Amino acid sequence: MSAEDVPSPPIDSGVDNIADKLGGLNTGDAIDRPQTDEEYGLAQLTLRAIVTSKEAGVIIGKAGQNVADLRDKTGVRAGVSKVVPGVHDRVLTVTGALNGIAEAYGLVADGLVKGAPQMGMGGVISSPNTHPIRLLISHNQMGTIIGRQGLKIKQIQDASGVRMVAQKEMLPQSTERIVEVQGTPDGVQKAAWEIGKCLIDDQERGYGTVLYSPAVRVQGTPPAAPMNGSTGYAAPRSFNRTGNGNDFTGGYPPRGRNGSQVDAGGPPPVVEEGEEIQTQNISIPADMVGCIIGRGGSKISEIRRSSGARISIAKAPHDESGERMFTITGGQSANEKALYLLYENLEGEKMRRSQIPEAQA
């Protein structure tokens, strides 16, 4: 494996208590979740971050020496995505036990603090010996890290001494958002540990995340949303999904808050030969649900027809965020089409809303 190879290991965990999660119950949590720091430290996960090309050079090192040392010291698998011509962002992927991941991000931060001046990256003048780390977090798991009224993110900052800023928007053609962590290398390590614990506790909602992939994108052009039948789907790239067969949770009837059934999802799902029926749960912001459903359900009906997937919508929010759970059921191909069309509509609506003030001006 070269220094720039990016491992894509499965995220180990079951989905035994997903029904309880969706119903707002906690009966299975104590069994499935680690209870002690030692158990958390041994839990396996993947934590990714966006880095610039210059930062990637520091992380990789000459002939890949730095990233090789990182692997040896922490026991993690780590790599940086390959260069995309015309794109300055790359993705650092770190996989392993939480202990090793937290230590690895501390070492990465230390390397960036020391390497920033000679790489011409500067740094934040008001915060010496710090360098920002931009972690990639699934939109569905962000609520766990922020907490009710921001209490959890404040707790993480207080415990680690870092400053954290969570971006509101998802990255293009993905369901990931950025949490920027600014602090000393020791603080970054502590923050990565706390963030990792949150992700482990809420790992079920991370299934099916569409991973951000650096790519050249046309700026200022709203995403095309051809909704004219089953031939209208044209994904701009292949989907990167977390896990390996665990992207889609399954086997449980979707339920809303307090166990209320979601609405009917349309006709039976389309399943291509050789595929198995899979179910994926994603959260949609409350103020965006209407634009996804459309007048009289026209848009969601068209997405169902175009993708061949069955899509059910919870009648009530599933937590205090007010977000509604959309449950997609079908073969892998149908589910991917449905997921793409849902987020394509979301991005189109965001752009439409952002242009309203300009049009009025």
TrEMBL record:
Source superkingdom: Eukaryota
**GO molecular function term, any single one:** RNA binding
> Which SUPFAM superfamilies is this protein grouped with?
Eukaryotic type KH-domain (KH-domain type I)
**Which PROSITE patterns has this protein been placed in?**
KH_TYPE_1
Q: Which InterPro entries match?
A: KH_dom, KH_dom_type_1, KH_dom_type_1_sf, Rnc1_KH-I_3
Q: Where is the K Homology domain?
A: 43-113, 129-200, 276-347
Q: Name one Pfam family in it.
A: KH_1
**What is the name of the protein in this document?**
K Homology domain-containing protein
